[in-house]
Amino acid sequence: MIRTRTDGDVRVVTLDRPEARNALRPADLTVLREAFEAPADGDAPPVTYLRGAGDAFCAGADLDAVAALDDPDAFARRGQRAVAAVEESPSIVVCGVDGPARGGGVELALAADVRVATPRATLGEPGVSLGLFGAWGGTVRLPRVMGEGEALDFALSGRVLDAEAALRTGLVSRVVDDPRSVADEIAAGEADALAAIKRRIRDRREGEAQERAEAAAFAELHDAHAEDIARRRDR
């Protein structure tokens, strides 16, 4: 499901489950975390390009898995750890959103250092329609990226943003035909300067307590809406 390869100065990580729009199951989250936690040696590319296979970036959490959860708090925490590994990677992470990104897919993109969309990208947080919300760090990162007002509107309404709307709200920084070209552009910089810039801009010493509370709230809502989630999955 998670493929990695090195292509020149860029490491490419691909969510490779196109038949399910690259929806993430619990085991996939572990593999994704390990892909970004893998220690980098001195020859490792300074830039990682994160993409989805097929016609979607990522549909978020696999609804079959969500409907079957025995421990939704643990599932949320597993997702948070995977997404945090993306954010904390020593590499510069460029996320290319081509096609739909929903729920956990948006949260995964939020953890990247640079988010780039193609003209056919769409982004949405549909969790509210299931009586849930994005609990892989989304409530922490979304207001940082969009601002509190836009974040509340986006998450509460469940609306879907096209690429231009995502650009206006700051959810992505560019709309281009080939997101990989942005990864190549950044990789042309000096590796030590890239790493130093990321460390300084990413230096924030809070959020863990917020994420624990986020996971607990997700678990409470999951239990309250378990039947609705199962029905939605079976449609």
TrEMBL record:
InterPro entries reported in the protein's UniProt record: ClpP/crotonase-like_dom_sf, Enoyl-CoA_hydra/iso
Pfam families: ECH_1
Gene3D superfamilies in the record: 2-enoyl-CoA Hydratase, Chain A, domain 1 (3.90.226.10)
Family: Belongs to the enoyl-CoA hydratase/isomerase family.
Name the record gives this protein: Enoyl-CoA hydratase
Organism the protein comes from: Halorubrum tropicale
Species classification: Archaea, Methanobacteriati, Methanobacteriota, Stenosarchaea group, Halobacteria
